Structure formats: structure tokens, C-alpha cells
Amino acid sequence: MGRDWKARLLHLVCVVVLLLTLPLAAAAAEVLQVRSPSLLQIGDRNRNYTVRLACLEVDAAQEAEAIDWLRQALPRRRRVNLRPVGTEDGTLLARVTPLGAEQDLSMAMDQAGVGHFTCPSEPPTVASL
Questions:
Q1: In this structure, is residue 58 part of a structural domain?
Q2: What's the CA gap between 11 and 9, in Å, rounded?
Q3: Positive or negative CA dihedral for 77, 110, 84, 122?
Q4: What is the pTM of this model?
Q5: Which residues constitute the domain of residue 75?
Q6: pLDDT tens by residue, 78-118
């Protein structure tokens, strides 16, 4: 009988911990602004920071088209998954994938013809034509 109340207490503590931590895990980063063809302003709960799309180069002649494409793909408050790959001059470099999408934005922009994917380890692939 002494173990029964301990097991119930442990179970209750586990449930409370899960209820308190699951909402934090579900809070994804949100796009606040597209600042350039490869630069995003991201909000993550109480923090705002600048993220540069990793593995992407955009020609100067394609910048306006790339910004338009990116703004269509990432309306404000669109939730995204960030996979950091490093920093550059204090700016976070990350592979950015909109939640629900299969492909990160750098590869998608390459396939749309508005940017060039530059990571040699993962060549762009055609999803489905």
C-alpha cells in the first residue's frame, strides 16, 4: 500500500511536467519580415533575431523576383523550422523550412529559378514534376 501512493504521485508529477512543457515544444519560430532575398526577421516567443538562409546565393538581377517569391512563400506569422548551420558576422545562418513543407527554402528557391543552391553535400533534387 505504501508503494501505491508513491506510484500515483510519480504519475501525477509526470503528467504535470508534460502539460507544462508540451506547449513550449509546440511553439515554432515565426516569420516577422522578409528583409532581403536571403535575410529574414524571425520571432521565437519573446525573442526576435535575423536569420540568413544558408546555402543560397541570389544574383543582383534576380533580387526583386526572389524577394517577391519569398514573401509569397512566407507570409507574416508563417511558422518555420530552423536548422542552424553557423553564424556570419553575428547573423544566424540556418536552413529554413516552413512547417508542413518537405523542402527548405534555399532548395525551393533554386528550383523556382530565383536563387542558386550552394551546399555541395546536398545537391538540389526535383521533388515531383
A1: yes
A2: 5
A3: positive
A4: 0.71
A5: 29-117
A6: 999 999 999 999 999 999 999 999 999 999 999 999 999 99
